[in-house]
Design brief:
Shape of chain A: flat
Largest interface: A-B, 71 and 101 residues
Number of helices of chain B: 13
Strand content of chain B: under 5%
Largest sheet of chain B: none
Distance between the termini of chain A: 56 Å
Order of helices and strands of chain A: HHHH
Order of helices and strands of chain B: HHHHHHHHHHHHH
Number of domains of chain A: 2
Structural class of chain A: mainly alpha
Shape of chain B: globular
Number of helices of chain A: 4
Distance between the termini of chain B: 17 Å
Oligomer: heterodimer
Number of strands of chain B: 0
């Protein structure tokens, strides 16, 4: 370990370590599931996962972002529910937050 | 959801799938570009060489984790600093383990030379688009391939642009672009909705995420909320059969 000159190659070593751990994680879930039987319960858990990730990611951002981002997200979801067009919904959400921030 | 073992669920690659994937990826590009520019600008600010930036974004390719790592980037690299950077990146990326696991039933019949490159370049929005598509009965891997390639290319262009020109872009908040990714994520909830059972699990995911965010520093709230929601979803019975059929 001490044979590597960190003053010269330290950044590359750091990037290599970050890349390795990230790939182990990205491949790891797939690899684990090959060795775990897919029971109905486990399948239901994986089916719920996308929505759970979305809510767990977005809700804290909305709470931290305040009223404007909350209204914008609610508006975008409403447009999506009515029109089923993700591009339009994202555009409306951004227009709402831009307008609210200009006013507030 | 298509039964993974059923022949109708066997994965295929088709040109239409690629086209559909490029189309499904479009709403993400605004938010992703802005984030890429921010990562490129930050890389320049902390003094990374252009080659380092290319290496990091081609081989690590995990924007949030890179942002957090660059927050704690040391002046001169030590083994302790490398260990700390690796740990931080592992924590922020741990959510990808769950995403990778959920793709396994779909990817399982593929040869390794297709599976591992697709997983190497797995992103949150790409996974979300694929899970929505898969949840609606789709099996065409072109959709996943298209978003994977599209996002990688757009990301690299945005990061390089941000590295050289980032300081020219003034105040993206004014146009709401900082919210582009959260808005896209939230919009995806609509096609993922499958009735109140899933809704209850989502509420639990949100409540746990908020609580963890309040009490635990860092990014654990995403993983904690996701796992709590998935467990809740697994233990709630399917709609209409509650407490009648044991699973």
């Amino acid at each position: 370990m001490s044979g590597i000159d960190l003053d010269r190659y330290g950044v590359w070593v750091a990037i290599a370590a970050m890349a390795a751990v990230t790939f182990l994680i990205r491949a790891g879930g797939f690899w684990l599931m090959e060795h775990v039987p897919l029971t109905p319960r486990l399948r239901r858990m994986l089916e719920v996962l996308p929505g759970a990730v979305v809510v767990a990611t977005v809700l804290p951002i909305v709470v931290r972002g305040g009223l404007a981002s909350g209204i914008a997200i609610a508006g975008a979801v409403l447009v999506m529910a009515l029109r089923r067009n993700d591009l339009l919904a994202v555009f409306c959400g951004l227009a709402i937050v831009a307008a609210l921030r200009a006013v507030l | 959801m298509v039964e993974p073992s059923a022949p109708s669920g066997a994965p295929i690659w088709s040109r239409q799938g690629w086209r559909q994937g490029f189309k499904l990826g479009m709403p993400v590009l605004a938010g992703m570009s802005l984030f890429g520019v921010a990562v490129g600008t930050t890389s320049a600010r902390i003094g990374l060489d252009f080659v380092d930036v290319l290496l990091m974004n081609v081989f690590v390719y995990a924007g949030i984790a890179q942002m957090v790592a660059m927050e704690i980037w040391p002046q001169s690299m030590t083994w302790g600093a490398i260990a700390a950077l690796t740990l931080v990146v592992a924590v922020v990326n741990s959510r990808l383990l769950l995403m990778s696991a959920s793709l396994q039933p779909w990817f399982a019949p593929l040869p390794g030379w297709q599976v591992y490159p697709l997983l190497y370049y797995l992103t949150d929005p790409g996974w979300l688009i694929s899970m929505r598509y898969r949840g609606e009965g789709g099996r065409d891997l072109g959709v996943h391939g298209a978003t994977t390639v599209l996002f990688l290319l757009v990301w690299l262009v945005a990061v390089i642009g941000g590295y050289f020109l980032g300081s020219l872009i003034a105040n993206p908040q004014r146009y709401g672009l900082d919210l582009a990714m959260p808005v896209f994520f939230a919009v995806m909830l609509v096609p993922l909705w499958r009735g109140p059972r899933r809704g209850v699990a989502w509420v639990i995911a949100g409540a746990v995420a908020l609580a963890v965010q309040h009490f635990v520093p860092g990014w654990w709230f995403i993983v904690a909320g996701s796992i709590a929601g998935a467990i809740a979803g697994g233990f709630l019975e399917p709609d209409g059969t509650a407490a009648k059929k044991p699973s």
